[in-house]
Amino acid sequence: MSLRVDIGLQQILDDQGLSQRELSRRTGVRLATIQSMCNNEVKQLTLTNLAKICEELELDIQDILKLRR
């Protein structure tokens, strides 16, 4: 059984009424990176980018990343 990490960023943005573009503007994280995260297409996450997003959204890492079986 393999594990995977799901990124729940799009749902969080929807809940907060925030666009991907606005999050990019506020954090300085490239829009393409945020789009990849929202689509669960990213293979590697830069911890600095993840920290910026968590800080802006006032969340902890575990609020965004979920380990799935």
Annotate the secondary structure layout.
Elements: E1 4-7, H1 9-16, H2 20-27, H3 31-38, H4 47-57, H5 61-64, E2 65-68
Antiparallel strand pairs: 1-2
Q: Could you estimate the helical fraction of the residues in percent?
A: 55-70%
How many E strands? 2
Our Rg estimate from Cα atoms comes to 11 Å
- Average pLDDT for all residues: 95
Can you list the strand order of the major beta sheet? 1-2
Main sheet makeup: 2 strands, antiparallel
SSE ordering: EHHHHHE
Strand percentage = 5-15%
**Structural class determined from secondary elements:** mainly alpha
Shape: globular
Low-confidence stretches: none
Number of helices: 5
Distance between the termini: 7 Å
